[in-house]
Specification:
By secondary structure, the protein is an alpha+beta fold. The chain has one domain: Glutaredoxin (3-Layer(aba) Sandwich). The chain contains 5 helices and 4 strands. Strands 2-1-3-4 form a 4-stranded mixed sheet, sandwiched between helices. α1 packs across α3 and α2 packs across α4. The protein is globular. The mean pLDDT is 92.
Length: 113
């Protein structure tokens, strides 16, 4: 008997989940981990920055199928790094861009666009 590792969601399924999350949420953060337990510092930073200005927003944990999520997100943003933030269907950026917007006092307006 051989052990078959769980392969995770199908890439087409992931693409559909990404498309739906972007289309149906005002603000969505694709991150490593979740709101209760971010799994990387960049995701934690993005979560904190968004949470400072928006009470309710969607998060999507990309870890169950990281490569498939990277590919699906890249089609929308042109970026491969995680986290990625979308507001009203438009790509805003990762934690570094969110931090720059915050420093310039523009993040709140960007998140409520």
């Amino acid at each position: 008997m051989s052990f078959q590792p769980h392969s995770g969601p199908d890439p087409d399924e992931v693409k559909q989940q990404v498309d739906e999350a972007i289309a149906s949420n005002d603000v969505v953060l694709f991150m490593k981990g979740n709101q209760l337990m971010p799994q990387c510092g960049y995701s934690a930073k993005a979560l904190e920055l968004i949470g400072n200005h928006v009470d309710e927003f969607e998060t999507v944990d990309v870890l169950p199928a990281l490569d498939a999520y990277r590919e699906a997100l890249s089609a929308h943003s042109g970026w491969e790094t995680i986290p990625q933030t979308f507001v009203d269907g438009e790509f805003v950026g990762g934690s570094d861009i969110l931090e720059e917007l915050e420093e310039r006092g523009e993040l709140e307006a960007e998140l409520s666009a």
